[in-house]
Amino acid sequence: MRGPAVEERSAGPTTAAPRAAYALEVLLLLFVSLGRSAVYAVLSIIDMSTRPGGVAAQTSQLNPTLVPDRPWLDAIYQVVETLLPVVPALLAVYLLGRTHAAPWAAIGMDLRRRGWGRDLAAGLGLAALIGVPGLGLFLAARAAGLAADVQAAGLGISVWAVLVLVARALMNGLLEEVIVVGYLFDRLPRLGWPPWAVLAASALLRGSYHLYQGWGGFAGNIVMGLVFGLWYRRSGRVLPLVVAHTAIDVVAFVGYAVLAPRVGWL
Q: Domain residue spans in the chain?
């Protein structure tokens, strides 16, 4: 059931545009961002599944050092790798501006309608709701041989590394939630998709670009997508989802960097 905020947001475009134009817009945006990542992730799971030992014997490393012998150049790479992926999210908001006078407010990324404290509290609550069961699901999938060995951080542990990992977590939150939730929940209904199909497509896309983690990451992120999508339908707010996603990734990235050298099973 859609809340009033979502109904107001989806009431209609301010400029006439044929359905085909929206379809092309969605496809082009996705295939320069998360749709492109999904294609590579599908190829990755095929590769891992057909190697000796299957998925469980493979390793996926996130946030690695890119130029280990030249720290200054590696630092530049890390900044670029953190900033450039945000551009498709900004493009999504720009495209929403074609049909909304205030696109940031239209997807619930503004601070004017309600206090930031409520969005922060809601986001941290969602992070706890998703994060703890998600870790359990990943460990179960790992034990069952359905998940790769995911090394969440390869930058070591230093003040600089922590700053990069926190910034990378925020980048992930902005990129994914703005596009997979805010943008798609606005555009797909304009293509005639019913609410259940929008929710399912958003969750499936989220799961698909995490296939490089194995089947456990795929399943866990579909569940996350369903929960986040249902929350957005009721609240019309993307900002708490960005907070939740950022918090989950900060714990995963920084926690791994701190604990992995000391805890063997990580």
A: 4-259
